[in-house]
Amino acid sequence: QVQLVESGGGLVQAGGSLRLSCAASGRTFSSYAMGWFRQAPGKEREFVATINWSGSSTSYAASVKGRFTISRDNAKNTVYLQMNSLKPEDTAVYYCARSEYSGVVTGRAAYDYWGQGTQVTVSS
What is the model's pLDDT at position 28? Predict the structure, then answer.
């Protein structure tokens, strides 16, 4: 069983930064791609960013490209999301997820384990 625990969310002013972390249990963390998704009130959960098993390949949603950076530390079983130049429309619950695959993938159906989420609120 894989457990994912997110941390680092909070309240920040527009233009500010936050760094989310996701700690994973299990010895196979480094074999799988990881992703970040978010869900705003009344909206569907949407893809934010993904990183492949080694960290050599990433992909981002158009809405966050150039502002957010996904990274991972396989020695620490942790994936990160650095969020800069935050906007009020980035307000959402952010979820970490583990993919069934080793390469980058953006579709929700490809992710089989999910964290409980961490709230990010950006004030204007």
Answer: 84
